[in-house]
Amino acid sequence: MTLIIKNASKTFADGTHALRPTSLTVGPGEILSLLGPSGCGKTTLLRIIAGLERPDPGGEIRFGNEDVTRLAVERRNVGMVFQSYALFPNMSVRGNVAYGLKVRKVSKAEQTRRVDEVLALCHLTDYANRPVTVLSGGQRQRVALARAVAPRPRILLLDEPLSALDAALRDSLRDELAAMLRQFQITAVFVTHDQVEAMSIADRVAVMSKGTLQQIGKPEELYRNPASPFVARFVGNAMPMMGQREPGRLILKGGELTLPNDAQPGQAFVRAENIHLDPEGALRGTIETVSFSVGHYRLGIRDVTDDILIATHPGRQAPRPGDTVRLRIAADDLLFLVDKNGQTT
Amino acid sequence: MRPSPSWLLQLAVTLLTAAFLIIPALQSILAGFTSNYFRGLSSGLTLKWLGEVWDLYAHSIFLSLWLAAACLFFTLVIGVPAAYALARNPGRLSRVLEEFISLPLAVPGLALALALLQLYGSMSGFRTSWAFILVGHVLYTLPFMVRAVLAVLLAMDLKTLEEGAATLGAAPWTRFRTVVVPNALPGILAGALTVVTLSIGEFNLTWMLHTPYLKTLPVGLADSYASMRLEIASAYTLVFFVMIVPLLVAMQWASDRARRITQ
């Protein structure tokens, strides 16, 4: 089923514009992620799709051919996984998963059949009769997902489904969740503030900031061709290279970079993984911080440009704070971006 | 290890305090079984006075039980939805309303009764019916129900739970019935036991509102003290104890349970 959002916006009673007019389409079976920092309007948009918030007049939500803008949440037939899971503490795992079927007056036999099926898909069969209050975080998350998909919703909505879990569990559940979502083959919208989560689960990612949709595209597209400095910073943590731009070169505090002939105008950005330590490198900087992160060093380097540049360094040995190093940045790895407001930062 | 002097002192104070509180009660209970209180236990033990209490005041016992049940019904029907509405709409207006509901706690029962008499005293049919006392009891016990249920409702993420149920297809009434009420049950139970205990034991307000034909348990107790033999009044106290103490224990248990949930 296709989800179509046209001009949806939300202004709260106190006058805050939680969401500026936004339009987007999610194809049948597609998994779309809404990615952005907190307060960017992603959860508001999700709640508008669910029917938990009503968009400002003029906005329209369509499920396929049906206009659901004015349809009450309980009649929309959506499945939602809440950040806090919102499991019913008075019911067992089975009771929670069967709830949506029960209120829809599905026959007892059909209820049992479908609940068993969904419990198996979500690896919950062994826990069916446990109270939800004794489950671990990961199990609760799976119950929430099973409960949402059991009534076969037209669209599945997930609000930060992994953020309540601890880091180790989050990594393993991320791939599991992605696999389960593909299995269900339901159109899904997925809210997160974590770029890794968005990239690894979604088919397409919509980056949002300050209530506005910044860019929408495949994860690779967003990473390789960010449309704005915000997207570049948020997806892949690109860092600005403040300096003086002259035809064919960029003059920085720590040296000079030759630019390709076809370089776009705008502020130059670079990512940590594209800065290499190289004795022959064109740039000079001083090591400020060194930390070891899984499999590589993270170096904080000052005096290359105004701000500290972060570089990932895969070697076995790392320079020490205070050392002067030379850096190489391939011209192809630079991103040139202009802010929509015309500013270069 | 030898007990220290301070430990012995604490023990003595505790025992003395307990004795100070318990001995009069024991004496009173014993008096209810004594053939003639003025001649003391040597006059023999008897169940005669209990029988007399039953003959004279059985209707008071039943009236109190009936009033407590009716009071519980109304506080449930009014109090649970009221607590729900207050929990769902947190705001200044809700706090003001909550204070208003709680007002009967601060106003003496006598004043409350006087206000009811001034307002409805002239409606003689209503004035002389048990419903008049019921109104007083509901007014007085409602805040206890609302507060007990509200505490439990505020401790859970009611809004998200309901939203969860709504996305699963449950209409507002279904959500209330299948999610709100079952999860508020510990609070409702604590509130219910408090309401029944208070309604059965309520004296101030009831004494002002009662008529000679409508004496509740505590009003009957006062009546027996004023107009019957001391032995009958004592036996009456015993009946009162037997009814109210299990309720008090149950109330304590239910409130503790509800409090554990809210933490």
Unreliable runs of chain B: none
Order of helices and strands of chain A: EEEHEEEHHHEHEHEEHHEEEEEEEEEEE
Please count the beta strands of chain B (DSSP E, at least 2 residues each): 0
CATH superfamily of chain B: MetI-like
Number of helices of chain B: 11
The dominant shape of chain B is globular
Mean pLDDT of chain A: 89
| Beta fraction of chain A | 25-35%
Largest β-sheet summary of chain B: none
Query: From the 3D coordinates, which CATH architecture of chain B would you assign?
Result: Orthogonal Bundle
Task: Note the beta-strand portion of chain B.
Answer: under 5%
How much helix is in the residues of chain A?
10-25%
Strand runs of chain A, count: 21
**Looking across the biggest beta sheet of chain A, what order are the strands in?**
6-7-8-3-9-10
Q: Determine the N-to-C terminus distance of chain A.
A: 40 Å
Q: Assign the structural class of chain B, choosing from mainly alpha, mainly beta, alpha/beta, alpha+beta, or little secondary structure.
A: mainly alpha
- Give the H and E element order of chain B: HHHHHHHHHHH
Label the structural class of chain A.
alpha+beta
- Over the alpha carbons, how many angstroms does the gyration radius of chain B reach? 23 Å
Low-confidence stretches of chain A: none
General description of the model:
The complex is a heterodimer of chains A (345) and B (263). By secondary structure, chain A is of the alpha+beta class. Helix content of chain A is 24%, strand content 32%. In chain A, α3 packs across α4 (137-149). The radius of gyration of chain A is 24 Å and the shape is elongated. The model of chain A has no long low-confidence stretch (mean pLDDT 89). By secondary structure, chain B is mainly alpha-helical. Chain B has one domain (42-262): MetI-like fold. Chain B has helices spanning 5-33, 48-88, 92-106, 109-120, 124-127, 130-155, 158-167, 172-201, 204-209, 217-227, 230-262. The mean pLDDT of chain B is 86. Chains A and B meet through β6 and α2 of A and α7 and α8 of B.
